[in-house]
Amino acid sequence: MASLPPCSVSKDSFLLSSKSFMIPPRTSTRTTGIYGSPLKFEKIEDTRLRFLGSVKTNPALRLEASRETLTSTQEVPIHKMESVEENDGRPDLFSDIKHRFLSFKRSKYLEKSDHFQKLAKGQAPKFMVIACADSRVCPSSILGFEPGEAFMVRNVANLVPPLENGPSETNAALEFAVNSLKVENLFVIGHSCCGGIRALMSMQDEVDSGSFIRNWVVIGKHARSSTQAAAANLSFEQQCRHCEKESVNHSLVNLLTYPWIEERARQGLLSIHGGYYDFVNCTFEKWTLDYKGSNVENGKYAIKDRAFWS
Ligand SMILES: [Zn+2]
Fold first, then answer.
1. Which of 6, 56, 63, 220 could form a disulfide with 247 if both were Cys (CB 3.0 to 4.6 A apart)?
2. Active site (annotated) includes residue 191
3. Residue from 12, 67, 114, 132 carrying the catalytic annotation
4. Considering the entire predicted model, what is its pTM?
């Protein structure tokens, strides 16, 4: 089962260097069975009650949520910006978040109230983004997506499961974005130092482990095997960097297993892009699946419009 890796791997660089790659035929990758450890309900209840208590004792938290104050000229009163330093002797973690929200409201929402009122009636984003849940890689922060510009789903290791895996929140979001919102671009974004990819590369076997993480990241097992084949002589860390990009390409191909995505791509109504954010060096690579230049039935895929931003 030969495959051409999408990346050339050297010690210092993991830039994509070939213009085409091949994905080996899939065997069943269905992952079923969820056996988590018991939830600690009493802890959850305790947290909920504490949160409700803070709202009751801090009516400002409710006031700022009111839509009645939304005018483009109105200033947010200064007294509402005052922070609550402590709550029952504990630091109020929401104090800073409250400031950020009010700052957003004043400097963006109220400044562009017409735009946001339009968004309240509906959305027409040009992008659907699939990114990792990692707190360091928020696409809106690093690529500047503003409200209304990108429909987004974030999961562990930014993976797109193939159709055969059945329902997940990722393909539910894809279905809505493609069939209802008619987005024109699907954009899968990987990143450096990805814990999900590390978990994938660390797996000794692919049986149901009872771990939600392992049972999820096993979606990328073909990316792992092609990485191990292409980068066997490299260190584990370097293999992880390689797989972070390889898994993006496999996700791009998995997107085409959904007939409603494949059809729109074939009609030229939908473009499929990959991206890779290196937050160690702060660089970004972007590439596009060349649907017309690919031979989907034979599992040969080409990429085009590669760019490297540094
Ligand atoms: Zn990640």
1. 220
2. yes
3. 132
4. 0.76
